[in-house]
C-alpha cells in the first residue's frame, strides 16, 4: 500500500480536532515514504491541510439540516470518494467524521484495498479493516469487530499526538504560579476563552498573573480578545502557533476544553483544569478526572466564576497536587502512537 487517503473536515461547528489528528498520522506516513491525499470539503480545513503541505482532493459541500437531504448528501459524497479512490489510486482510506452510516462504509469498502475509521463514539459496528480510538475511554467501550480480520487499535498507546510531543524536556513545576494557559480548541463556538479570561481578570488575587490565550484558526471572537489584551498587558494572545508545547511547558496551570488537547497537556505534564464542550468529551474528561490525570470543571454551560476561581486557587496553593498531576499525566502517554500505527499498517 503506497497511497493513503484521509476523509476529514474542520470548521467552526466541528472544530479542528479531527483534522489535527489526521495530519499527525499523515505526517508519519509521509516520513515513511507514503503518498498522502486529503479528501475535504470545508474551507477552514482545506487551508490547514495545504499549510501542512499535503494534497487536497476537494469534495462538493452542501450545508443542510434536513435529515433526509443529509442522507442523500452522504450517498453522493460516497460516490465522489469512490471516484477519487480510482482516480488517484488510493490503497488505504481513513475516515474521521461523525457523519457516517453503516451504508456509507459498505458502499466505499469494495473500492479500496483497506478502509480505516478514526473513532470516539462506538455508535455501531463499523464495517472497516482498521479501527483507531486513541482515547482513554476506548478500552471501556466494548467495541465489536465487524470481521475476524479487523485490526482494532484502542487506548492512549495509539493516541494520534503530533511529533512535537515526543521527547519533551522535563517540565519544571514552580512553587509560585505565575502563568496560566487558556485553550478552548480550534474554533471556540461558545466564546469560552473570553468568558474564562474575564473571570480571572476580575479576581483581585489572580488578575496580575500572565495569561497565555491560544487562538485557533476558526475563532470568531478574536476582536473581543484583542480589546481585552489592549487593556491588560499581562494577557498574551498566541495566534497560528507552530509549537504549542512551548506554551504548555512554560505555563504553570492550563484551563482546557476536553478533546485531544488534554493528551498534549498530559504529555507536557501541565496541571490541567478541563471543561466539557461536546458529548464525545464527557466520558474522557470524567475518566481522566477519576483516574487522577486532571481536575474536571464539568460542562461549559455550568461553569461559573465561583467554581473556576476556587479550583485555580487550590492549584496555586497546592504545590504537591501539581507535582502529582504532572507525573500522572506524563505516565499516560509518550506520543509514539502514530509511529506504532504506521509500523503496524506497513505489515498488513
UniProtKB/TrEMBL annotation:
A Pfam match: Glyco_tran_28_C
Residue positions of the active site: 18 (proton acceptor)
UniProt KW Cytoplasm keyword: no
Residues engaged in binding substrate: 16-17, 162, 264
Keyword tags: Hydrolase
Keyword Hydrolase: yes
E.C. numbers: 3.6.1.57
Sequence ranges assigned to domain Glycosyl transferase family 28 C-terminal in this UniProt record: 184-289
GO molecular function annotations of the record: hexosyltransferase activity; hydrolase activity
PANTHER family registered for this protein in UniProt: GLYCOSYLTRANSFERASE (PTHR21015:SF22), UDP-N-ACETYLGLUCOSAMINE--N-ACETYLMURAMYL-(PENTAPEPTIDE) PYROPHOSPHORYL-UNDECAPRENOL N-ACETYLGLUCOSAMINE TRANSFERASE 1 (PTHR21015)
Designated name of the protein: UDP-2,4-diacetamido-2,4, 6-trideoxy-beta-L-altropyranose hydrolase
Lineage of origin: Bacteria, Bacillati, Bacillota, Clostridia, Koleobacterales
Amino acid at each position: 500500500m503506497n497511497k493513503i487517503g484521509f476523509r476529514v473536515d474542520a470548521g467552526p461547528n466541528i472544530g479542528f480536532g479531527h483534522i489535527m489528528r489526521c495530519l499527525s498520522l499523515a505526517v508519519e506516513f509521509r516520513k515513511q515514504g507514503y503518498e498522502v491525499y486529503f479528501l475535504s470539503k470545508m474551507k477552514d480545513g482545506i487551508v490547514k491541510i495545504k499549510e501542512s503541505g499535503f494534497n487536497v482532493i476537494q469534495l462538493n459541500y452542501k450545508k443542510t439540516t434536513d435529515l433526509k437531504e443529509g442522507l442523500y448528501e452522504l450517498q453522493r459524497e460516497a460516490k465522489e470518494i469512490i471516484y477519487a479512490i480510482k482516480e488517484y489510486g488510493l490503497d488505504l482510506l481513513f475516515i474521521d467524521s461523525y457523519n457516517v452510516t453503516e451504508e456509507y462504509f459498505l458502499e466505499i469498502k469494495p473500492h479500496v484495498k483497506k478502509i480505516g475509521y478514526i473513532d470516539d463514539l462506538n455508535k455501531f459496528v463499523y464495517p472497516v479493516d482498521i479501527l483507531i480510538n486513541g482515547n482513554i475511554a476506548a478500552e471501556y467501550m466494548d467495541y465489536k469487530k465487524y470481521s475476524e480480520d479487523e485490526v482494532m487499535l484502542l487506548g492512549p498507546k495509539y493516541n494520534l499526538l503530533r511529533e512535537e510531543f515526543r521527547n519533551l524536556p522535563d517540565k519544571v513545576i514552580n512553587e509560585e504560579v505565575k502563568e496560566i494557559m487558556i485553550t478552548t480548541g480550534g474554533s471556540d463556538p461558545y466564546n469560552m476563552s473570553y468568558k474564562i479570561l474575564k473571570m480571572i481578570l476580575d479576581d483581585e488575587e489572580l488578575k496580575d498573573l500572565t495569561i497565555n490565550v491560544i487562538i485557533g484558526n476558526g475563532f470568531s471572537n478574536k476582536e473581543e480578545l484583542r480589546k481585552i489584551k489592549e487593556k491588560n498587558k499581562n494577557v498574551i494572545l498566541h495566534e497560528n502557533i507552530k509549537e504549542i508545547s512551548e506554551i504548555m511547558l512554560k505555563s504553570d496551570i492550563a484551563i482546557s476544553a476536553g478533546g485531544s488537547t488534554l493528551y498534549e497537556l498530559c504529555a507536557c505534564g501541565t496541571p490541567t483544569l478541563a471543561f466539557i464542550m461536546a458529548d464525545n468529551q464527557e466520558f474522557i474528561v470524567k475518566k481522566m478526572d477519576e483516574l487522577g490525570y486532571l481536575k474536571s470543571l464539568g460542562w461549559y454551560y455550568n461553569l461559573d466564576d465561583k467554581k473556576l476561581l476556587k479550583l485555580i486557587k487550590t492549584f496555586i496553593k497546592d504545590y504537591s497536587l501539581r507535582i502529582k498531576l504532572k507525573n500522572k499525566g506524563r505516565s499516560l502517554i509518550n506520543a509514539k502512537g502514530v509511529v506504532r500505527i504506521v509500523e503496524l499498517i506497513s505489515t498488513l
